[in-house]
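Forwarding the complex inputs:
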Amino acid sequence: MTLDPAIREQILAAVPSLRAFAISLSGNVDRADDLVQETLLRALANIHSFQPGTNMPAWLFTILRNLFRSEYRKRRREVEDADGSYAETLKTHPEQTSHVEFKEFTAALGKLPEDQREALILIGASGFSYEEAAEICGCAVGTIKSRVNRARTRLANLLHIDNPNDFGPDRATRAVLTGDDVA
Amino acid sequence: MKERKPPDNPGSDESMETRPSTMKKGKGQAALGRDIQAKIGQQLRSYYDTLIEPTPDRFADLLRQLDKPAKEGSE
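Prediction (whole assembly, two chains):
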């Protein structure tokens, strides 16, 4: 196999985000690394089908996402995350966000349906356009938009965000503060 | 065709969308306000940022190894 150095650079440049996406999908760093490795092997084996000048990150994300999906179907029961183990597998915490807030957020993310989580991450974090995300997920642009919207709404509900300055207190607490009647 | 537009969301966080007004939002749910979307976006990015690390050596090595036989090989 001869690999154009420019192509190799493009692949390597995409790896950090690809890996972050894999961790987001699987909630597990080791599995994510395996997914990335498998993705790179597939990519190299099919490099002739990549058209130079087109979107390398989107191509790699598509491969990884398909790999994850086929594996996920096999292992669905293992991946269920009712008890929040999804969040626990993530080891680091950002300094600009409190530890509690971060844990709550990752736990909420883990509760989203797979479709919605991947759409939200592709759009909101990986930096893809709606069109690119639709291509990666093999669905219509409108489907991605609706998944992203549902994901945001669900997260806002799970995290009780009604007001960004009010990130945290539950409804009852806020009701007391604002004088609304809870009952 | 703007009559069904959700009250609270001018589509501000949808800057990447070409036509936010074509979206049929709110099957039973109101669209989120832009502040809430911004807050979620910020949390999401900071979550993702924690997952970003320099490319682990194993992947760079992998690409190098796979590339090598071709360079030394017969083709």
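Chain B is about 45% helix and 0% strand.
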